[in-house]
Write a structure and sequence with these properties.
single chain, alpha/beta, Rossmann fold, 2 domains, 6-stranded parallel β-sheet, 13 strands, globular, binds uridine-5'-diphosphate
């Protein structure tokens, strides 16, 4: 679908908070190069996404409104593909850009492929090694790689993975991850909101731990065990505190309230805006998380991270020595916390490591590659 008569046109699809954080700089960079850029939100997550649309000043051209309470991946995929069919026909882009591993991204890649529209995949080539974990993200990522025409690999390791899977090298660009672009932009001005600033003031001098946990694999016993370990760790060390922006998912909120509600020096927060979240990372002593994006952000800000997951598709942070893979057992989390508490050498060493995920210029590289290839 080449458009010799007009300037190139791309459509950019997102539906969740991390997709927008990573695609917002790509949208800006594409526009700077004169590429017509049309945005589509699936609204896979509405409440979590909205503040980010405002913070990044993104205008949504098409909203697919797929979200329903208790939705399954099949609900999101089927509604997404059906609605994209008419939206993509209307836009007629030369390329659809998707990001990462969400069901929105997979639905976009399938819909575009079926319409003969090229697909560009940001954050391509990540693999956890287990097709069912994280679910369904790992399989989404693998399937998108089969459907995509252009692959934007964050690291050389991601590029190697794609080459081994048979992706032609001419279709891969190593760009860095655009999360670093967004992060560096916001970090310059990141300032906590007045409520958060008050809590940071109250805990001045304390060793703050920032926790995020919301992945499907963590639900149930694993999450309950991890929260109990953190509660006991904070209770037994008066110079520590815990900050936890609690995800909106009921599987997270219920157990959080039961295990951590009312505990001293434990701050349960509503999901934070990006600027607040970055300010909190900056003010933390240690981060504990099962998130994908946080595995890229913590090293970018020189903060040590314990990854509470069985595996990771981002081994670069572990290899660089800035993150440790705890696994999914709460006993292991307890051991790691005690180790870190007893010896601060690791915490101090992290500040000096080079960021494995990029230099803040990923979006520029992605947009230039698109311009060359469409
Ligand atoms: N994040 C945020 N506020 C919060 C929690 C997370 O801004 O209260 C950001 C965080 O900086 C990261 C992204 O949300 O970039 C991660 O999203 P999430 O953990 O939902 O998804 P994942 O990265 O695991 O796919």
């Amino acid at each position: 679908m080449s458009r010799e008569d007009e300037s190139p046109k791309i459509a950019v699809l997102f539906g969740t908070r991390p997709e927008l954080i990573k695609l917002a700089p790509v949208i800006s960079a594409a526009k700077r190069l004169g590429i017509q850029t049309v945005t589509i939100s699936s609204s896979q997550h509405t409440d979590l996404l909205k503040p980010f649309i405002d913070a990044f000043s993104i205008k949504i051209d098409h909203d697919l409104r797929v979200m329903r309470p208790g939705q399954s991946p099949n609900d999101v995929a089927s509604r997404g593909i059906a609605r994209l069919d008419s939206v993509l026909k209307e836009i007629g882009p030369d390329l659809l850009v998707v990001q990462g591993d969400t069901t929105t991204a997979l639905a976009g890649a399938i819909a575009a492929f079926n319409l003969g529209i090229k697909v560009g995949h940001v954050e391509a080539g990540l693999r956890s090694g287990n097709p069912r974990n994280p679910f369904p993200e790992e399989m989404n990522r693998r399937l998108i790689s089969r459907l995509a025409d252009l692959h934007f690999a964050a690291t050389r390791q991601n590029r190697e993975t794609l080459l081994v899977e048979g992706v032609p090298s001419k279709n891969i660009a190593v760009t860095g991850n655009p999360v670093v672009d967004s992060l560096l932009f916001f970090a310059k001005t990141a300032k906590p909101n007045p409520d958060l600033a008050k809590m940071l003031d109250m805990t001045k001098g304390s060793r703050r731990i920032l926790l995020t946990t919301h992945r499907r694999e963590s639900f149930g016993k694993t999450m309950e065990g991890n929260l109990k370990v953190l509660r006991d760790f904070i209770a037994s060390r008066p110079d520590t505190s815990l900050f936890f922006p609690v995800h909106l998912n009921p599987n997270v909120r219920k157990v959080t309230k039961e295990v951590l509600g009312g505990a001293e020096r434990i701050f349960l927060l509503e999901p934070l805006g990006y600027s607040d979240f970055i300010a909190l990372i900056q003010g933390s002593w240690l981060i504990v998380s099962d998130s994908g994006g946080v595995q890229e952000e913590a090293p970018s800000l020189g903060k040590p991270l314990l990854v509470i997951r069985a595996n990771t598709e981002r081994p670069e942070a572990i290899e660089a020595g800035v993150a440790k893979l705890v696994g999914s057992s709460s006993k292991s989390l307890k051991r790691h916390l005690e180790e870190v508490n007893g010896d601060e050498t690791w915490i101090r060493s992290v500040k000096k490591q080079k960021n494995p995920f990029g230099d803040g210029k990923a979006a520029e590289r992605i947009a230039s590659f698109i311009q060359r290839k469409i």
